[in-house]
Design goal:
The structure holds two protein chains of two kinds. Helices cover 34% and strands 29% of the residues of chain A. In chain A, strand 12 and strand 13 form a beta hairpin. The longest helix of chain A is centred in the middle third of the chain and has 16 residues. Chain B is globular, with a radius of gyration of 20 Å. The mean pLDDT of chain B is 89. By secondary structure, chain B is mainly alpha-helical. Chain B contains twelve helices and no strands. Classes of the chains: A alpha/beta, B mainly alpha.
């Protein structure tokens, strides 16, 4: 059973005061999120990430198409017992303290008082708000509210957690803690579905990512495959090579940059790497490092959203590997 | 059963939120001051001291209760949407009708407590003025009950408008409904006297469409020592229940279709 599945999901917003005109926010979205994985929904602002999450949580309704969460149609609110949700830029009842709010959230799930007390205490500790448990939320900083938001999303020990821009408003330490928390959730078998436009977060966390741009799915795949696809060249650094060596290497390494005593060579073809190494060793040149230069998620992202054209082979390969996307 | 519990949780949360509104305390203080002032007005009204005191005291409870009902009622749903607190609530196993009903009962609970405080103030004023309270003085509780029914209806109207409009427009609409609702009997009579078929149809339509708040006004007769007849208490209770069922159902229908962008 999939954690999340959307089929041909379309969302049109009606805009205009007198003459309402539909504006397409989501264009036939097909997504499959496996259970137990960290899935990242990426895209620039206005791409349709929050729209997708809101449809899944029934905060807005799809114009057409269907979606299922944990095997149940999204119209079935009972599935909300098994999910958690952190909204983008959350705001909660500011007259309540963090402890009161989490208790309220637990009550909505029908948790017994003893279990509520235990979970509230444990979550406050987990998100680092133990000291501020009795402070009204109106006195909280943005980062602290975000932490409360994460705690309330986990109050019911959900199987699937939706996090909309979870790192937003957090300082570097907070981001690190949330990253650890997300990894910890996966380790305990939970599924995490999060949206972000911060690619480094996705790169360090996700098992799979989908890229949305202007409401359209531009690509979807396993992160390691996407990044492996992008090995574009190999970087070899040599220590003080003689000019004759460099001359010999010229045909394999069109780009050679000298920095101090070291020379950095970029070898475009992977098959030329052994030849370069053989020449260097034959001339007793000291080898400093050999590194594959991988395409970053950012490169892939930019290619997918059309800022820099991706080769059709790359796109096709990811699509074929992922099946129906 | 679980649904009832969730409604109770939302109602309690809304109650907590409402009682922490500063404007509420200001209104209660004003109401108590006015009830206190009623003693003074009573003293300078020779022969009708108690009539003035009861009239002014109950009118203060009604007027300030109305202000509270409108001011808090109009932002009941709107504030949740505007501040986006609703996102995290509806993502939990809370059905939209449960949310609306919970919000409604939360505010009615707040009004119940405030009315109780103002009524206590009223009886303290009465005790101060008369030196002792008699059983007949508690006839005024019938009028207080009618005021509560009226407030429950006003909250229903405000809740409905809160689902579709901004607080300012909701306040205007609710106040209009309240004012027109107080004169519905007169409006209908006016329609019948005009000899114009369409005016009569219009006034009759308004008479049946809008809540008839005039039926709840028993302050004057209570001030003159009359008790509120049992049939009136019963019929107005049933009328309020029926009308509220319609108002809350309409609010739920609108809220069920509402999107939170």
């Amino acid at each position: 059973m999939l954690a999340v599945e959307t089929v041909d999901l379309i969302k049109d917003y009606l805009e205009g005061f007198w003459r309402k005109r539909p504006k397409r926010a989501l264009e036939g979205l097909n997504l499959c999120v496996e259970r137990g994985e960290i899935f990242g929904l990426l895209g620039p602002n206005g791409a349709g990430k929050t729209t997708t999450l809101k449809i899944l949580l029934r905060l807005i309704f799809p114009s057409s198409g269907t979606a299922r969460i944990l095997g149940k149609d999204i119209a079935d609110v009972s599935v909300h017992h098994r999910i958690g949700y952190l909204p983008e830029q959350p705001y909660f009842y500011d007259h309540l303290t963090a402890e009161e709010f989490l208790n309220f959230a637990g009550e909505l799930f029908g948790l017994p008082a003893s279990e509520r007390r235990r979970r509230v205490a444990s979550l406050l500790e987990r998100v680092g708000l133990e000291e501020s448990r009795n402070v009204p939320l109106r006195k909280f900083s943005k980062g602290m509210v975000q932490r409360v938001g994460i705690a309330q999303a986990l109050i019911n020990d959900p199987e699937l957690v939706f996090l909309d821009e979870p790192m937003s408003g957090l300082d570097p330490l907070g981001r690190r803690e949330v990253r650890d928390l997300i990894l910890e959730l996966r380790a305990t078998g939970k599924t995490v579905f999060f949206s972000t436009h911060i690619l480094s977060d996705a790169e360090s966390l996700c098992d799979r990512v989908a890229i949305l741009h202007r409401g359209r799915l531009q690509g979807c795949g396993e992160l390691r495959k996407i990044l492996a696809l992008g090995v574009s060249s190999t970087e070899i650094i040599l220590e003080d090579p003689r000019p004759t060596v460099l001359k010999e290497l010229d045909r394999y390494a069109p780009s050679a940059v000298k920095t101090g005593e070291r020379v950095r060579l970029e070898i475009p073809s992977e098959s030329d790497v052994p030849k370069v190494l053989e020449i260097a060793l034959r001339h007793h040149t000291k080898l400093v490092s050999v590194n594959p230069v991988k395409k970053s998620l950012e490169d892939y992202f930019m290619a997918q959203i059309g800022k820099k054209p991706a080769t059709s082979n790359e796109k096709e390969e990811v699509r074929t590997r992922e099946g129906r996307v | 059963m679980k649904s009832v519990r969730r409604i109770a949780v939302i109602a309690l949360q809304n109650f907590k939120e409402s009682v922490r509104e500063r404007v509420l305390y200001n209104l209660i203080v004003f109401a108590l001051l006015l009830i206190g002032a009623a003693i003074l007005f009573g003293r300078i009204s020779v022969g009708v001291e108690q009539i003035i005191l009861v009239n002014l005291g109950l009118s203060s409870i009604s007027a300030f209760g109305l202000l509270m009902a409108i001011f808090i009622g109009i932002s009941l749903v709107w504030k949740e949407i505007d501040r986006r607190t609703i996102y995290s609530i509806l993502a939990k196993p809370v059905r939209r009708p449960e949310f609306i009903i919970g919000k409604y009962f939360g505010l009615v609970g707040t009004l119940l407590i405030n009315t109780a405080i103002m009524t206590t103030g009223f009886y303290v004023a009465l005790l101060y003025d008369k030196g002792r309270l008699e059983l007949s003085d508690f006839r005024a509780l019938g009028a207080v009950y009618m005021i509560l029914l009226q407030l429950a209806l006003v909250v229903g109207v405000a809740l409905l408008f809160s689902c579709i409009s901004t607080p300012i427009l909701s306040a205007v609409f609710t106040l209009c409904v309240y004012v027109i609702g107080n004169f519905l009997n007169d409006i209908r009579w006016f329609g019948q006297e005009t000899n114009s078929a369409w005016v009569e149809k219009l006034t009759t339509f308004l008479y049946y469409l809008l809540p008839n708040f005039g039926n709840f006004n028993v302050i004057s007769r209570t001030a003159h020592g009359e008790s509120v007849p049992g049939y009136l208490l019963l019929s107005n209770s049933l009328y309020t229940l029926l009308y509220l069922a319609i108002l809350i159902s309409a609010a739920i229908l609108i809220f069920e279709e509402r999107e939170f962008r």
